């Protein structure tokens, strides 16, 4: 805003000030005085205050801190005291002049800062002030209360300047038990800080409230250099978080090929199962992470492990990929020796699921690799039964070409053709049954269906 006071005066001749609402943030409209404070339009601000009956609110104070105009801020402080949102906006907008003013006050209240910076940013899992990278604030706080910068200051590479201070208590953790080392591993250019912390005896295997070590976070933040550094210093490569997930599990989940290889080179256990029984290979299959999968398979992982699906049913990896429709993953698993005829706890093979989900190309692939075309599940249903129930004409033709038995009956004594007739899918019934079993259907009946 350009603080064009004359144009503003002319505008309000025909527009009552108390009716003016202007957008500061999307979908939010505020009084003109807040708008002036937000943009630091000091002339308009004082005009509204002196001539238009506008009132300063605590919102006006907060927006003045964002706007950064000292005169407007001082005017607002005559009406409202500094609160934690003043610190929030000063930190996030790098209003260093105001921060210096706050830190210099005799009634400076550090608890207002604590209220702000212990609140995590949920996108990243650490305090918002780290996201806004306000170095000036970090050094101001260090001068006021050294240990108030612990543990989060280690997220700044420049913190090396203060971390040499022997008076700092490096054992301080935040409310999530996040240590100074946990914060340090969020950025790949922070190796010098990490080396310093480890040289000062910081516990490399410390865990936060989620039971995660610094290695878990280094992996999920895709910091290969930090992962390598932690491994070199002997961090527990197979440490499990509260869901029993290892760093390798997360590397597989995120398809981080180089990091997965690095962890495996340091003897990461490829067959550790998380709480639902999934290994790194299972999550790579589910997420369609082919590159990670091939690396894992080259290290003798248990390819036929049974993991629990989202409904708590046991599923081999081949079943999982058939459910999600990842043809390339199916091919990769088969080429590495996956048991093509393995069954889950419903006695279904991967073919049953590929048919149910109408993945024609996967059906072809499984059949061409010699899967038992007539395998039955717990209800004595074959893949052909499911194809008939799903009106899968193309899949039915594929199954028949590979020798599917049309005479197998399910638990209800129904063949696939009889299921199609009951629904009714006359065209499929005609393909699977003798004419006598659907003679009551005419061509018109089929068109209606």
Give a summary of the structure in a few sentences.
With 449 residues, this protein is mostly helical. Helices cover 48% and strands 4% of the residues. Among the domains are: 150-236, Alpha Horseshoe (Serine Threonine Protein Phosphatase 5, Tetratricopeptide repeat), CATH 1.25.40.20; 269-372, Serine Threonine Protein Phosphatase 5, Tetratricopeptide repeat (Alpha Horseshoe); 375-449, Alpha Horseshoe (Serine Threonine Protein Phosphatase 5, Tetratricopeptide repeat), CATH 1.25.40.
Query: How many helical stretches?
Result: 28
| Strand residues, percent | under 5%
Q: Name the helicity range.
A: 40-55%
Corresponding CATH superfamily of the domain at 269-372: Ankyrin repeat-containing domain
CATH topology of the domain at 269-372: Serine Threonine Protein Phosphatase 5, Tetratricopeptide repeat
Radius of gyration: 33 Å
Q: Which residues form runs of ≥5 with pLDDT under 50?
A: 120-126, 442-449
Largest sheet: 2 strands, antiparallel
What's the total count of β strands?
6
Give the terminus-to-terminus CA distance.
Answer: 66 Å
Level-1 CATH class name of the domain at 269-372: Mainly Alpha
Q: Order of strands in the sheet with the most strands?
A: 1-2
